[in-house]
Amino acid sequence: MDITPQPEERFSFIKRWLVSLIILPIIFYLLKNRGEYGLIDNFDLVIHEAGHFFFSFFGNFIYTLGGTLMQMLIPMLFIWYFWKNYYRTGVQFSLLFLGQNLINISVYAADAQARKLPLLGGNKVYHDWHYILNEIGILQHDAVVGYVFVGLAIVIFIIALLMPLIIQD
Fold first, then answer.
1. Which of 33, 122, 130, 160 is the most buried (most CB within 10 A)?
2. Backbone Cα Rg of the chain
3. Contact assessment for residue 119 and residue 125, using Cβ atoms and an 8 Å cutoff
């Protein structure tokens, strides 16, 4: 009895795991270059600023948190849409987008005390995460909060990589 995989079985296996193989080096790049501003960060910034507008009706704390919330909600909407339609590749890239945003958020949160990141509006605006962490009384733990976001990003990245085990063809 021959147990060697047939060519169509090998092709199916490669096809199923191809996106995971493509996004793996991207994940390593994002983690290795945490804190470096890239092209996609411009898109994240637009989403972040739009979040302030959409959440401005809910008071100062939620308004301030709204930028970060929108950075998480937009990728989650994509994840939900692709999950609902059983489109694994879309789910994987949307999870990658969510993880990338969490990395972006981690840098901003970890900067809460130092406030060295350049902000839109310059000195006329306040640092979101300085305000948020100060309001909840944990400003001195900004680095820990930043690493919590990195940890969440790593979990999201692992889920993205293992998605072929979750959504079958």
1. 160
2. 19
3. yes
Classify residue 74 by burial, with Cβ atoms within 10 Å: 0-12, 13-18, 19+: buried
How far apart (Å, rounded) are the C-alpha atoms in residues 102 and 96? 10
What is the number of structural domains in the chain? 1
Residue 5, domain member (yes or no): no
- Asked if residue 11 is part of any domain, the answer here is no
- Domain carrying residue 22: 16-166
Residue-wise pLDDT tens digits, 104-126: 999 999 999 999 998 877 777 88
pTM of the model: 0.92
DSSP for 124-146, written as a single string? GS--HHHHHHHHTT-GGGHHHHH
State the residue for tokens 């005390």: 113
Nearest to 106 by CA among 140, 55, 52, 68: 68
Residue 75 belongs to some domain of the structure:
yes
Token couple for 69: 């919330």
**96, 160 Cβ separation under 8 angstroms:** yes
Asked if the structure places residue 7 within a domain, the reply is no
Tell me, what amino acid is at 52?
A: H
Rounded to whole angstroms, the Cα distance separating 48 from 90 reads 22
